[in-house]
Amino acid sequence: MSSGAQLAEPGAPFAPAVGTEETCGHPDGVHATARIRATYNGRVTTLPQLRSDGPFHLRRMPTNGKTARVGIIGAMSAPLGGDRLALDITAEDHAELDVTTAAATLALRGPTTAPATYDVRLTAGEHARLRWLPQPLISAADSNLRQTYTVNLAATSRLVLREEQLLGRTNEKPGHLVSRIRVHHAGRLLLDQHTAYGDPEPGWNGPAVLDGHRAVGQLLVVDPELDVRRAPVLLREGTKDGCAVLAPLAGGPALLATAVAPTSSALRELLDEALSHAFGE
Q1: Model confidence over 91-137: pLDDT tens digits?
Q2: If you count Cβ atoms within 10 Å of the first and of the last residue's Cβ in the chain, which end, N or C, has fewer?
Q3: What is the C-alpha to C-alpha distance for residues 216 and 230, in angstroms, rounded to an integer?
Q4: What task does this protein carry out (predicted)?
Q5: Calpha distance 180→147 (Å, rounded)
Q6: Quick check: is 166 in a domain?
Q7: What is the DSSP string of 27-50?
């Protein structure tokens, strides 16, 4: 696999230019951490902590049954160069939590050439269910973003994590986008994946990586009841609408779908199809 999209070595360090809690060294960067905590009271999931900060405005959404739903609304343009943004989301034991965003996240060039960081930390307790289903992240021209997902799951928790990235707006080159997903399940490393797109990454748009596609995404499903003995499934191979592969992960009850597509709508269709395959629908 080319350096444009590669698996990180297990245990290899990944250090954004500046940590989320540190100062960025100039007055232009925004530092913000929003927090969501869901608990189960024996009947339904409640939200004892819903803390908005900076560009993040958190809103409870209507729901039926046991699940709590939260929508994240952008209150300002972000992330820009130099910003340090973080989301800390926890579903405690037996809680069921769905989190989404109201619109796409747009990474833009800022007043500094320093990279922005966007850290999403997801935690699910025993018998909890957490679904992180945001709208796409758009890497606009001249932007520079480091995005990380840090996920900690209990042995009996369930997770659906969707990541969608659009490399540039219409007729526009993308910025520099580096993303890492690191997942621990029952205290053991399940997934550690590092991808990088846009200049100056070598070969990121070549036939071994994106092959000219501008939309890329992943879907991670972790569930103790998954059938992970299946062979990998190829979706829409040989078509002009992109393709995806759904494969089991060696370290646990998990399936990972990776997809590339020419448009955001085609990418969403592929990931939705992969989700249906994951649960045998």
Answers
A1: 999 999 999 999 999 999 988 888 999 999 999 999 999 999 999 99
A2: C
A3: 24
A4: Required for maturation of urease via the functional incorporation of the urease nickel metallocenter.
A5: 6
A6: yes
A7: TT--EEEEEEEEEE-SSSEEEEEE
Question: Which two three-digit tokens encode residue 243?
Answer: 């393709």
pLDDT of residue 281: 64
How far apart (Å, rounded) are the C-alpha atoms in residues 153 and 223? 10
Residue 252 lies in a domain: no
User: Tokens standing for 15?
Assistant: 């250090």
Is 136 contained in some domain? yes
| Residue 268 host element (H or E) | helix 264-278
pLDDT at 18: 35
Q: Is the pLDDT of residue 22 over 80?
A: no
| Integer CA distances (angstroms), 207 to 85, 166, 211, 258, 260, in order | 33, 18, 4, 15, 12
Tally of domains within the chain? 1
For 53, which DSSP code? Answer: B
Q: Per the domain annotation, does 149 fall within a domain?
A: yes
Burial class (CB within 10 angstroms; exposed 0-12, middle 13-18, buried 19+) of 68: buried
d(CA 59, CA 213): 34
Which domain range does residue 87 map to? 29-214
AA letter at 209: V
Residue with tokens 């890492």: 180
Lowest mean pLDDT among 73-82, 138-147, 191-200, 250-259: 73-82
Beta strands per DSSP E along the chain: 5-7, 31-40, 45-51, 56-61, 68-74, 84-91, 96-101, 105-107, 116-124, 129-132, 137-139, 144-153, 158-167, 176-185, 188-197, 215-222, 233-235, 243-248, 254-261
